[in-house]
């Protein structure tokens, strides 16, 4: 990789940052990120990064979304003031992505606010994975590379899940994602239409499509409280599915999600490691993990060398 690149990491997901650095045959840069006694974030870069291509790996994810965001912004400011040549924020899970529109009176568009903060901190490029809504890229005036977990998910399905399959979108908004996977897998597609009384609470579900005597694969970008997945699994089994798997990019798993998963009829929940979840996986044997460290590392390598990132997915999606 050469000596003009530096990988730094905050505290959001040190394990993933270490795996990415190892994949690139690099050591993580020397950066101390902590807190002062009054709770303010403290950052100190302990080596020269002048004129270097710097990549800051930091998911702005739970359980400490705001702390992780502030660490990213303050690290970027420290790196910019240390005369780095270019600063790229590698954000495996982009926090506040669900607040991407004004869906009711006097509501903020926090996703746009976060984009403004990232730009003002001096960051030149963002690499992220499976944004909740692709239009979030338009919130930025800097390049945004939105990577996809789809190739890794398809590889897992082909290797680990036997039987005749049907790809299921858990809502109308995820149809495009589900259709893309079903086309590549040459599988049928089904859609669950759900009506919500309020956020994170589904009042009714209707299945469009046939799942009888098939393995149902629910695909989504995020699993939060897992109420939708549990209800969808019950519905699919009631309609004749033999097994029900959920394949999700970001395992938020907030609130009593683990309890719901353990009590649900879901066969397995497969998530990537964009968010740390080792403690939750230990409490729920249904959780399986897809490691996306190599995908992020390869995106960093290609960005550093000025190579195409889109070809990364064109090459792997059919394998």
From TrEMBL:
The reaction(s) this protein catalyses: D-ribose 5-phosphate + ATP = 5-phospho-alpha-D-ribose 1-diphosphate + AMP + H(+)
EC numbers for this chain: 2.7.6.1
Top-level EC class: transferase
Cross-referenced InterPro entries: PRib_PP_synth_CS, Pribosyltran_N, PRTase-like, PRTase_dom, Rib-P_diPkinase, Rib-P_diPkinase_bac
Gene Ontology biological-process entries: 5-phosphoribose 1-diphosphate biosynthetic process; purine nucleotide biosynthetic process; ribonucleoside monophosphate biosynthetic process
UniProt xrefs under CDD domains: PRTases_typeI
Gene3D superfamilies from the UniProt entry: 3.40.50.2020
Keyword tRNA processing: no
Keywords on record: ATP-binding, Kinase, Magnesium, Metal-binding, Nucleotide biosynthesis, Nucleotide-binding, Transferase
Named cofactor requirement(s): Mg(2+)
GO cellular component: cytoplasm; ribose phosphate diphosphokinase complex
Pathway(s) the chain acts in: Metabolic intermediate biosynthesis; 5-phospho-alpha-D-ribose 1-diphosphate biosynthesis; 5-phospho-alpha-D-ribose 1-diphosphate from D-ribose 5-phosphate (route I): step 1/1
Xref: SUPFAM superfamilies: PRTase-like
Family recorded in the similarity comment: Belongs to the ribose-phosphate pyrophosphokinase family.
UniProt-listed NCBIfam families: PRK01259.1 (NF002320), ribP_PPkin (TIGR01251)
Protein name: ribose-phosphate diphosphokinase
């Amino acid at each position: 990789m050469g000596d003009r690149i530096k990988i730094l990491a905050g505290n959001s997901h040190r394990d993933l940052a270490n795996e990415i650095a190892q994949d690139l045959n690099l050591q993580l840069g020397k950066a101390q990120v902590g807190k002062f006694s009054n709770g303010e974030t403290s950052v100190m870069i302990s080596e020269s990064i002048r004129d270097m291509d710097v990549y800051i790996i930091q998911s702005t994810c739970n359980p400490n979304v705001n702390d992780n965001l502030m660490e990213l912004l303050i690290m970027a400011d420290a790196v910019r003031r240390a005369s780095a040549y270019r600063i790229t924020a590698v954000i495996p899970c982009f926090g506040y992505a669900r607040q991407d529109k004004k869906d009711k009176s006097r509501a903020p568009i926090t996703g746009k606010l976060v984009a403004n903060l990232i730009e003002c901190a001096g960051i030149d490029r963002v690499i992220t994975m499976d944004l909740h809504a692709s239009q979030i890229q338009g919130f930025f005036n800097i390049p945004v590379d939105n990577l996809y977990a789809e190739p890794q998910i398809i590889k897992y399905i082909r290797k680990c899940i036997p039987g005749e399959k049907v790809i299921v979108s858990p809502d109308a908004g995820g149809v495009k994602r589900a259709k893309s996977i079903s086309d590549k897998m040459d599988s049928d597609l089904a859609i669950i239409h759900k009506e919500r009384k309020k956020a994170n609470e589904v009042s009714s579900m209707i299945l469009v499509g046939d799942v009888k005597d098939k393995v149902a694969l629910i695909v989504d970008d995020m699993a939060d409280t897992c109420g939708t997945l549990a209800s969808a699994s019950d519905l699919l089994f009631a309609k004749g599915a033999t097994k029900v798997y959920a394949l999700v990019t970001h395992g938020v798993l907030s609130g009593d999600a683990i309890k719901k998963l353990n009590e649900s009829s879901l066969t397995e929940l497969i998530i990537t490691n964009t968010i740390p979840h080792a403690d939750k996986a230990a409490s729920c044997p249904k959780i399986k993990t897809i490691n996306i460290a190599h995908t992020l590392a390869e995106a960093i390598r290609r960005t550093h060398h000025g190579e195409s990132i889109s070809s990364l997915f064109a090459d792997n999606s059919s394998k």
